Amino acid sequence: MIESLRVVVLVVVAAGCNSEEAPPAAESGGGCNVDYARLAGHRKVAFRADVVPVLRRSCGLSSSCHDLDSPEAGLALGSPCPDPRNCPPLGEPAINSIHTNLLMASLTAPAVQRVAPTRPAESFLLDKAADIQNKKGYSCTPQSPSVEGCGTGMPPSGPEVVLCTRRDGQEEFDILAAWVLQGAPND
Length: 187
Fold this sequence. Notes:
single chain; mainly alpha; 2% strand
């Protein structure tokens, strides 16, 4: 009887291994792996030490895209700095304001938060960085007449290219995604 049960278990397991149905592939976009489950064991990410530097290098602080005076899509991330490697440090009020701004609803996709703590797959910031925002079926309000759908991936053009297509893009994307997965704390 026990031997018969072993044979049945082996047949069932073998049948599963020979299945022609492949496991679902991890979604990717713009060059980044957006399988957020793989980041569950990622090191602790701190907003000030890890996230803010990525934003300063990647999100328009080298131009005026997301500056405090006239931020694109209402997302203010700080003052422009011509050389992101040599920007003056941000003060506590500016860092707190950036954090608050990131946790708001997106102006482009009002039904979606820019950053949804613990839910990276529902965070518009990550969708834009991975350039998958137009694949998600969001109802978007273009921010200018020349922009279609939910816009382009970020950063959009110029010397910088979409975060996920840059040399260190996956690493920087993972920092942002892990921070969101860890609850997006203001630390």
